[in-house]
């Protein structure tokens, strides 16, 4: 997701397509660029970790849920009953049980440990994505890609807020990477992601359609195991509280600008909400538009064809990852690190199918993804204009970045499939 990645790609494309390249980075220059980029990224990570402070972030919810579990046996004991307030624990029960060993830590220490876990997941996600691509030319710029990933606002917010987005992205990509040779481990990764948050279960539909279906059976088995842990230790009470207080609580801020999803867009436009002035208060219209657009995205997921090679499968899976961002009802901006693999896949495709137009569109998509919710707060008049009327369409520009990236993958999937058949 780095703005520097398209530049590196363009340089490589020039090297490949020009009979006498006029621009060629030496191995030493590439090594120095990587080292400098890594140094800046490490400084960024150290600075973020040093400035976590004592304030409450989402990791405080995880800690409180585990402490509730130790004290009362119910991870949702301090979660408000159904109503407009944000709950103390919006996640399924399993996470609270897994974090019980860390619950006695004071909040600053707990927050730091969680930050380090997130950093480890970030490194693993980058390494796994580059290994999946198996593109030596792209891997040469691993340091530049790492820096671009670290400096991406969604990555920063996920780390700073203690969110689960990077971890869930790692589990989704791992399920794809392990599917052919280790279906059991792939199923475990898929089931674990769905047990931490519900929306990664959508990848199960990908497995059902694309295979290997053994992964789905393993995921069902591991899913039953993960569901059984809270039930065996505390009975059905945690699930009853989760259903009543969270899923049916009616508190989710779907229209808020941080929600990068189709439902977020239509709710902002067509439902009365405290975040913006909608075009019209007509919830039926919002629901209808959400269902129709979601059906279109799912239909495209089922329709897109993969070429019978590794890159073809990667393109299709990357498209499904983009679709997941659009379909998740409450998809926080901090979940967009999952688009690292789709971005790298697009760059790899550009190396094979050079196109200045596609490169420009990819750069535009990345630029849109770099614009966080609230990007206009420094301009009060503009910010006010974006809270009503046509301005609502510009509240969450990163949504259009996701859509544009998905459309590029769709086009390249067809192009790659056609070229594979022609060979």
Amount of helix: 55-70%
Distance between the termini: 32 Å
Shape: globular
What integer is the average pLDDT?
87
Strand content range: under 5%
Gyration radius (Cα, Å) is 22 Å
Structure annotation, total helices: 20
The unreliable regions are: 1-23, 83-87
How many extended strands? Answer: 0
Q: Structural class given helices, strands, pairing? A: mainly alpha
Q: What do these coordinates show?
A:
Helices cover 67% and strands 0% of the residues. It has helices spanning 4-17, 27-50, 58-72, 94-98, 107-133, 136-139, 142-151, 153-161, 165-178, 183-196, 203-210, 214-234, 237-247, 262-270, 283-303, 310-327, 340-352, 356-369, 380-385, 397-422. The chain contains 20 helices and no strands. The protein is mainly α.
What is the secondary structure topology, with strand pairs?
Blueprint lengths: L3 H14 L9 H24 L7 H15 L21 H5 L8 H27 L2 H4 L2 H10 L1 H9 L3 H14 L4 H14 L6 H8 L3 H21 L2 H11 L14 H9 L12 H21 L6 H18 L12 H13 L3 H14 L10 H6 L11 H26 L1
Helix pairs in contact: 1-17, 2-7, 5-7, 5-9, 5-17, 9-10, 10-12, 14-15, 15-16, 16-17, 16-20, 17-18, 17-20, 18-20
